[in-house]
Fold:
Amino acid sequence: MKQLLKILTETFAPSGYEDAVREIILKEVKPLADEVRVDALGNLIVRKKPTKASKTSKRIMLAAHMDEIGVIASHVDKKGFVRFTNVGTTLGRYLPGSRVRFLNGTMGLIGYDRLELIDNIIPLNKMYIDVGATSRGNCPIKVGDIAAFERSFIEMGDRLVAKSLDDRVGVVVLIETLRAIKSTSNDLYFVFTTQEEVGSRGAGSATFGIDPEIGIAVDVTPTGDTPASIKMVMELSKGPCVKFRDVGMIADPRVADWMIQSAEKAKIPYQREVLLIGSTDAREIQISRAGVMAGALSIPVRYVHSASEMVDINDMKNSVKLLTAMLKNPAL
Ligand code: CO
Ligand code: ZN
Structure:
């Protein structure tokens, strides 16, 4: 699981450019699936058919997004400095001094205009990317070129640190859940979605195509367990989080109950989640077509949307256990 997470987090897939991550996932899931396809928006849809179909079999969609936040070049000046804007919620406070890698392989570092006050948070339009060019003519970056954080994966005991744990950690949990389910009475769709960070655009169209009866997004949740953080109960190492509410949705209480009952029965630790910032693919799943019964299972992650996000491997393992327990038996 660690090795796969390292490979996936050291691969680049800003929103709309998920190909490299999709290729890695495809290799892992192909031998485990009954059907595999890629839709027009680039979503990877992996189906595991019921091994013992019954009247209570349900069509269940699971979603984890492949994309990560990034930046996109909007202007190159005479000296070859690249101005940029955000792709997804790229936060100014995490950028100065960061390295980014463009999809054409060009590396860049982020500098900023002279500040009036040295401790001010800097807006993105006061920053630039220095790619080592000296003029517009020799700058390898054109307007529209896209980049993501460059940062290697490290281990701190059970805690793993990398860029794009949001949501490669969810991607790994879905792959390992698919691997763990030997038989199921449900018709399962594991969907690796595109463009979540720019508003769950992939999940919306994937859900329309699949038309599931139940949907679950597997994504990260920020925690409230660091010094002077927002008051939220979610902590690292305390188990997967059952979502009740975020900015985009009220999770279906039937789905939340199903998660909690499955966790208690299998003695898997879990946490209750009310998230004060952000949302997930579950929102788009819930309001697709005539509506879908939807919820979300979240993996606690610190420092979300920085180049060094942190997760506990035990939270990943318990998420796989919980989803496996839920999905192999008749749902709800
Ligand atoms: Co995110
Ligand atoms: Zn996410």
Observations:
- Residues 70-149 form a domain with the Elongation Factor Tu (Ef-tu); domain 3 fold (CATH 2.40.30.40).
- The chain has two domains: 2-68+163-327, 70-149.
- Residues 224 and 230 are 6 Å apart (CA to CA).
- The two ends are 29 Å apart (CA to CA).
